[in-house]
Amino acid sequence: MYYIDNQGITDPKVNLAIEEHVLRNFDPAGAYLMLYVNAPSVILGKHQNVFEEVNVDFVATQGVEVVRRISGGGTVYHDLGNLNFSYLVPHDAAKVNNYRYFLNPIVEALQSLGVPAEISPRNDIMAAGKKISGNAQFSTTKRMVSHGTLLFNSEIIHLSQSLKALGSNIQSKSIKSYRSPVANIATYLTPDQQQQLDMEQFKKVLLEHVFRTDEIPVYQLTPEDWRVVHQLVEEKYSTWEWNFARSPQFTLEKTSDIAGRSIVARLQVKKGHIASVNFEGGADPEVWQNLSTQLTGNKFEKSALLAKFQEMKTEELIQANLDDILALVWV
User: Fold this and answer.
1) Is residue 8's pLDDT more than 70?
2) Alpha-carbon distance values, 211 to 106, 140, 179, 204 (Å)
3) Cβ distance 69 to 43 under 8 Å?
Protein backbone atom coordinates (compact mmCIF):
# COMPACT_ATOMS: atom_id res chain seq x y z
CA MET A 1 0.00 0.00 0.00
CA TYR A 2 1.14 3.54 -0.82
CA TYR A 3 0.24 6.81 0.86
CA ILE A 4 -0.93 9.42 -1.66
CA ASP A 5 0.50 12.88 -1.05
CA ASN A 6 -2.21 15.43 -1.90
CA GLN A 7 0.24 18.30 -1.25
CA GLY A 8 -1.80 19.66 1.63
CA ILE A 9 -4.68 20.75 -0.60
CA THR A 10 -7.86 21.58 1.35
CA ASP A 11 -10.23 22.07 -1.60
CA PRO A 12 -12.92 19.36 -1.22
CA LYS A 13 -13.53 19.29 -4.97
CA VAL A 14 -9.88 18.49 -5.65
CA ASN A 15 -9.62 15.83 -2.95
CA LEU A 16 -12.78 14.06 -4.14
CA ALA A 17 -11.46 14.23 -7.69
CA ILE A 18 -8.17 12.63 -6.59
CA GLU A 19 -10.15 9.80 -4.98
CA GLU A 20 -12.17 9.21 -8.14
CA HIS A 21 -9.10 9.34 -10.38
CA VAL A 22 -7.26 6.76 -8.26
CA LEU A 23 -10.37 4.58 -8.09
CA ARG A 24 -11.09 4.56 -11.81
CA ASN A 25 -7.71 4.96 -13.49
CA PHE A 26 -4.96 3.46 -11.34
CA ASP A 27 -3.59 -0.09 -11.64
CA PRO A 28 -6.40 -2.38 -10.41
CA ALA A 29 -3.88 -4.32 -8.32
CA GLY A 30 -2.59 -1.25 -6.45
CA ALA A 31 -3.60 -0.27 -2.91
CA TYR A 32 -3.47 3.31 -1.69
CA LEU A 33 -4.38 5.43 1.32
CA MET A 34 -5.27 9.12 1.39
CA LEU A 35 -5.43 11.33 4.46
CA TYR A 36 -6.69 14.84 3.78
CA VAL A 37 -8.31 17.86 5.40
CA ASN A 38 -10.95 19.97 3.66
CA ALA A 39 -11.95 23.59 4.08
CA PRO A 40 -15.48 24.05 5.48
CA SER A 41 -17.84 22.01 3.31
CA VAL A 42 -20.74 19.59 3.38
CA ILE A 43 -20.26 16.39 1.43
CA LEU A 44 -23.42 14.70 0.17
CA GLY A 45 -23.91 11.02 -0.50
CA LYS A 46 -24.47 10.26 -4.19
CA HIS A 47 -28.21 9.53 -3.84
CA GLN A 48 -29.18 12.32 -1.45
CA ASN A 49 -31.36 15.39 -1.85
CA VAL A 50 -29.32 18.44 -0.90
CA PHE A 51 -32.45 20.34 0.19
CA GLU A 52 -33.38 17.63 2.69
CA GLU A 53 -29.87 17.38 4.13
CA VAL A 54 -28.34 20.84 4.13
CA ASN A 55 -29.31 24.29 5.36
CA VAL A 56 -28.58 25.72 1.93
CA ASP A 57 -29.13 29.34 2.94
CA PHE A 58 -26.79 29.07 5.96
CA VAL A 59 -23.94 27.41 4.07
CA ALA A 60 -24.25 29.96 1.25
CA THR A 61 -23.85 32.88 3.64
CA GLN A 62 -20.99 31.18 5.52
CA GLY A 63 -19.02 30.21 2.43
CA VAL A 64 -19.40 26.48 3.16
CA GLU A 65 -19.10 24.52 -0.09
CA VAL A 66 -21.61 21.82 -1.05
CA VAL A 67 -20.04 18.91 -2.94
CA ARG A 68 -21.49 15.53 -3.87
CA ARG A 69 -19.30 12.42 -3.69
CA ILE A 70 -19.56 9.20 -5.71
CA SER A 71 -20.23 6.94 -2.72
CA GLY A 72 -23.57 6.47 -0.98
CA GLY A 73 -24.33 7.05 2.68
CA GLY A 74 -25.19 10.24 4.53
CA THR A 75 -24.15 13.87 4.46
CA VAL A 76 -21.10 14.86 6.51
CA TYR A 77 -19.51 18.16 7.50
CA HIS A 78 -15.82 18.83 6.85
CA ASP A 79 -13.61 21.61 8.12
CA LEU A 80 -9.96 22.12 9.03
CA GLY A 81 -10.52 20.23 12.29
CA ASN A 82 -11.76 17.10 10.53
CA LEU A 83 -9.43 14.47 9.07
CA ASN A 84 -10.63 12.31 6.18
CA PHE A 85 -9.21 8.89 5.37
CA SER A 86 -9.71 6.97 2.14
CA TYR A 87 -8.66 3.42 1.34
CA LEU A 88 -8.47 2.81 -2.42
CA VAL A 89 -7.90 -0.89 -3.01
CA PRO A 90 -8.61 -3.73 -5.46
CA HIS A 91 -12.22 -4.87 -5.52
CA ASP A 92 -12.77 -7.78 -3.15
CA ALA A 93 -16.25 -9.13 -2.46
CA ALA A 94 -15.13 -10.06 1.05
CA LYS A 95 -14.35 -6.39 1.78
CA VAL A 96 -17.49 -4.82 0.32
CA ASN A 97 -19.55 -3.62 3.30
CA ASN A 98 -16.86 -5.10 5.56
CA TYR A 99 -16.11 -1.82 7.26
CA ARG A 100 -14.32 -3.46 10.15
CA TYR A 101 -11.51 -4.53 7.84
CA PHE A 102 -10.77 -0.88 7.07
CA LEU A 103 -11.71 0.65 10.41
CA ASN A 104 -9.85 -1.65 12.79
CA PRO A 105 -6.46 0.09 12.32
CA ILE A 106 -8.16 3.47 12.78
CA VAL A 107 -9.84 2.31 15.98
CA GLU A 108 -6.53 0.89 17.26
CA ALA A 109 -4.84 4.23 16.61
CA LEU A 110 -7.56 6.07 18.51
CA GLN A 111 -7.43 3.62 21.40
CA SER A 112 -3.64 4.08 21.58
CA LEU A 113 -4.38 7.73 22.38
CA GLY A 114 -6.84 6.75 25.12
CA VAL A 115 -9.98 7.44 23.06
CA PRO A 116 -12.76 4.90 23.90
CA ALA A 117 -13.35 4.19 20.21
CA GLU A 118 -15.52 1.34 18.91
CA ILE A 119 -17.30 0.46 15.70
CA SER A 120 -21.09 0.75 15.81
CA PRO A 121 -23.60 -1.51 14.03
CA ARG A 122 -24.10 1.37 11.55
CA ASN A 123 -20.39 1.28 10.68
CA ASP A 124 -19.65 4.55 12.45
CA ILE A 125 -16.86 4.96 14.96
CA MET A 126 -18.27 5.95 18.34
CA ALA A 127 -16.71 7.17 21.54
CA ALA A 128 -18.73 7.06 24.77
CA GLY A 129 -21.96 6.92 22.75
CA LYS A 130 -21.11 9.80 20.42
CA LYS A 131 -20.19 9.64 16.76
CA ILE A 132 -16.64 10.66 15.87
CA SER A 133 -16.50 9.08 12.39
CA GLY A 134 -18.96 8.40 9.57
CA ASN A 135 -18.11 6.01 6.72
CA ALA A 136 -19.17 5.08 3.19
CA GLN A 137 -18.03 2.83 0.35
CA PHE A 138 -18.19 2.67 -3.41
CA SER A 139 -16.93 -0.03 -5.76
CA THR A 140 -16.40 -0.67 -9.44
CA THR A 141 -15.79 -4.09 -10.96
CA LYS A 142 -12.05 -3.64 -10.43
CA ARG A 143 -11.53 -1.30 -7.48
CA MET A 144 -13.25 0.03 -4.37
CA VAL A 145 -13.03 2.92 -1.97
CA SER A 146 -13.84 2.87 1.75
CA HIS A 147 -13.61 6.34 3.23
CA GLY A 148 -14.65 8.20 6.32
CA THR A 149 -14.33 11.23 8.56
CA LEU A 150 -12.56 11.74 11.87
CA LEU A 151 -13.84 14.66 13.92
CA PHE A 152 -10.57 15.66 15.51
CA ASN A 153 -11.31 19.23 16.57
CA SER A 154 -14.13 20.45 14.33
CA GLU A 155 -16.50 23.37 14.84
CA ILE A 156 -19.43 21.33 16.13
CA ILE A 157 -21.79 24.32 16.13
CA HIS A 158 -21.11 24.98 12.45
CA LEU A 159 -21.58 21.27 11.76
CA SER A 160 -24.96 21.32 13.45
CA GLN A 161 -26.12 24.49 11.69
CA SER A 162 -24.92 23.36 8.26
CA LEU A 163 -26.72 20.02 8.49
CA LYS A 164 -29.90 21.49 9.96
CA ALA A 165 -31.95 21.15 6.79
CA LEU A 166 -35.06 23.28 6.43
CA GLY A 167 -36.84 21.04 3.93
CA SER A 168 -39.41 19.52 6.29
CA ASN A 169 -42.09 20.08 3.64
CA ILE A 170 -40.21 17.96 1.09
CA GLN A 171 -41.24 14.49 0.00
CA SER A 172 -38.80 12.29 -1.92
CA LYS A 173 -37.32 8.81 -2.16
CA SER A 174 -33.77 10.02 -1.55
CA ILE A 175 -31.42 8.35 0.92
CA LYS A 176 -31.79 10.10 4.27
CA SER A 177 -28.95 10.76 6.69
CA TYR A 178 -29.12 9.18 10.13
CA ARG A 179 -28.47 11.88 12.71
CA SER A 180 -26.40 10.96 15.75
CA PRO A 181 -24.92 13.01 18.60
CA VAL A 182 -21.35 13.88 17.64
CA ALA A 183 -18.17 14.75 19.50
CA ASN A 184 -14.59 15.68 18.76
CA ILE A 185 -11.79 13.20 19.35
CA ALA A 186 -9.89 15.96 21.18
CA THR A 187 -12.59 15.80 23.88
CA TYR A 188 -11.25 12.41 24.96
CA LEU A 189 -7.58 13.38 25.06
CA THR A 190 -5.72 14.40 28.19
CA PRO A 191 -4.89 18.10 28.65
CA ASP A 192 -1.26 17.36 27.74
CA GLN A 193 -2.32 15.52 24.60
CA GLN A 194 -4.61 18.37 23.62
CA GLN A 195 -1.66 20.75 23.88
CA GLN A 196 0.81 18.54 22.02
CA LEU A 197 -1.20 16.66 19.39
CA ASP A 198 -1.94 18.73 16.29
CA MET A 199 -3.43 17.51 13.01
CA GLU A 200 -0.08 16.55 11.48
CA GLN A 201 0.88 14.48 14.52
CA PHE A 202 -2.56 12.89 14.50
CA LYS A 203 -2.01 11.89 10.86
CA LYS A 204 1.33 10.35 11.82
CA VAL A 205 -0.31 8.20 14.51
CA LEU A 206 -2.88 6.92 12.02
CA LEU A 207 -0.29 6.19 9.33
CA GLU A 208 1.86 4.17 11.70
CA HIS A 209 -1.11 2.03 12.71
CA VAL A 210 -2.29 1.46 9.13
CA PHE A 211 1.15 0.73 7.67
CA ARG A 212 2.58 -0.90 10.82
CA THR A 213 5.82 1.06 10.30
CA ASP A 214 7.10 4.60 10.55
CA GLU A 215 8.63 4.35 7.06
CA ILE A 216 5.65 5.16 4.89
CA PRO A 217 5.88 4.51 1.12
CA VAL A 218 4.58 7.59 -0.67
CA TYR A 219 3.05 7.98 -4.13
CA GLN A 220 3.51 11.43 -5.67
CA LEU A 221 0.85 12.39 -8.18
CA THR A 222 2.31 12.99 -11.65
CA PRO A 223 1.57 15.95 -13.95
CA GLU A 224 -0.75 13.64 -15.91
CA ASP A 225 -2.55 12.67 -12.67
CA TRP A 226 -3.07 16.34 -11.87
CA ARG A 227 -4.36 17.02 -15.39
CA VAL A 228 -7.05 14.35 -14.96
CA VAL A 229 -7.87 15.56 -11.44
CA HIS A 230 -8.34 19.18 -12.52
CA GLN A 231 -10.48 18.07 -15.44
CA LEU A 232 -12.73 16.17 -13.03
CA VAL A 233 -12.95 19.24 -10.80
CA GLU A 234 -13.94 21.46 -13.71
CA GLU A 235 -16.35 19.11 -15.43
CA LYS A 236 -17.93 17.44 -12.40
CA TYR A 237 -17.19 18.52 -8.84
CA SER A 238 -17.49 22.26 -9.49
CA THR A 239 -20.80 22.01 -11.31
CA TRP A 240 -24.29 22.84 -10.09
CA GLU A 241 -25.52 19.92 -12.21
CA TRP A 242 -23.56 17.38 -10.13
CA ASN A 243 -23.77 18.93 -6.68
CA PHE A 244 -27.38 20.17 -6.72
CA ALA A 245 -29.33 19.02 -9.78
CA ARG A 246 -28.27 15.40 -9.17
CA SER A 247 -30.66 15.36 -6.19
CA PRO A 248 -33.47 12.82 -6.69
CA GLN A 249 -36.80 14.33 -7.77
CA PHE A 250 -38.96 15.67 -4.97
CA THR A 251 -42.13 17.56 -4.18
CA LEU A 252 -42.32 20.66 -2.00
CA GLU A 253 -45.46 22.03 -0.40
CA LYS A 254 -45.44 25.45 1.28
CA THR A 255 -48.08 27.78 2.68
CA SER A 256 -47.55 31.52 3.13
CA ASP A 257 -49.66 34.61 3.72
CA ILE A 258 -49.49 36.70 0.57
CA ALA A 259 -51.42 39.97 0.18
CA GLY A 260 -53.72 39.01 3.06
CA ARG A 261 -54.55 35.53 1.76
CA SER A 262 -53.24 32.07 2.62
CA ILE A 263 -51.57 30.71 -0.52
CA VAL A 264 -50.53 27.08 -0.96
CA ALA A 265 -47.78 26.19 -3.43
CA ARG A 266 -47.03 22.66 -4.59
CA LEU A 267 -43.85 22.18 -6.61
CA GLN A 268 -42.36 19.14 -8.29
CA VAL A 269 -38.62 19.37 -8.91
CA LYS A 270 -36.77 17.06 -11.31
CA LYS A 271 -33.06 17.22 -12.19
CA GLY A 272 -32.79 20.53 -10.36
CA HIS A 273 -35.55 22.25 -12.33
CA ILE A 274 -39.19 22.99 -11.52
CA ALA A 275 -41.24 20.44 -13.46
CA SER A 276 -44.58 21.81 -12.26
CA VAL A 277 -45.99 24.25 -9.73
CA ASN A 278 -49.56 24.85 -8.65
CA PHE A 279 -50.91 27.67 -6.49
CA GLU A 280 -54.17 27.67 -4.52
CA GLY A 281 -55.93 30.46 -2.64
CA GLY A 282 -54.97 33.53 -4.68
CA ALA A 283 -57.46 36.35 -5.25
CA ASP A 284 -56.58 36.54 -8.96
CA PRO A 285 -56.13 32.99 -10.34
CA GLU A 286 -54.86 34.28 -13.69
CA VAL A 287 -51.92 36.06 -12.03
CA TRP A 288 -50.93 32.91 -10.14
CA GLN A 289 -51.40 30.74 -13.24
CA ASN A 290 -49.05 33.07 -15.11
CA LEU A 291 -46.49 32.76 -12.31
CA SER A 292 -46.82 28.98 -12.48
CA THR A 293 -46.22 29.01 -16.22
CA GLN A 294 -43.19 31.27 -15.88
CA LEU A 295 -41.60 29.19 -13.10
CA THR A 296 -42.05 25.84 -14.83
CA GLY A 297 -38.71 24.77 -16.27
CA ASN A 298 -36.81 27.27 -14.15
CA LYS A 299 -33.76 26.28 -12.09
CA PHE A 300 -34.68 25.47 -8.50
CA GLU A 301 -32.08 27.85 -7.18
CA LYS A 302 -32.62 30.91 -4.99
CA SER A 303 -30.88 33.41 -7.24
CA ALA A 304 -32.61 32.02 -10.35
CA LEU A 305 -36.02 32.30 -8.68
CA LEU A 306 -35.39 35.89 -7.59
CA ALA A 307 -34.21 36.79 -11.09
CA LYS A 308 -37.40 35.35 -12.57
CA PHE A 309 -39.59 37.28 -10.10
CA GLN A 310 -37.81 40.53 -10.91
CA GLU A 311 -38.07 39.87 -14.64
CA MET A 312 -41.84 39.44 -14.26
CA LYS A 313 -42.23 42.43 -11.91
CA THR A 314 -43.95 39.97 -9.61
CA GLU A 315 -44.22 42.44 -6.73
CA GLU A 316 -46.52 44.65 -8.76
CA LEU A 317 -48.62 41.72 -9.95
CA ILE A 318 -49.14 40.08 -6.55
CA GLN A 319 -48.80 43.10 -4.25
CA ALA A 320 -46.27 41.45 -1.92
CA ASN A 321 -42.55 41.85 -1.39
CA LEU A 322 -40.11 39.46 -3.02
CA ASP A 323 -39.14 37.82 0.28
CA ASP A 324 -42.76 36.77 0.88
CA ILE A 325 -43.11 35.38 -2.63
CA LEU A 326 -39.78 33.59 -2.43
CA ALA A 327 -40.76 32.02 0.92
CA LEU A 328 -43.68 30.39 -0.85
CA VAL A 329 -41.58 28.48 -3.38
CA TRP A 330 -38.21 28.04 -1.67
CA VAL A 331 -37.13 25.66 1.10
Assistant:
1) yes
2) 11, 25, 32, 10
3) yes
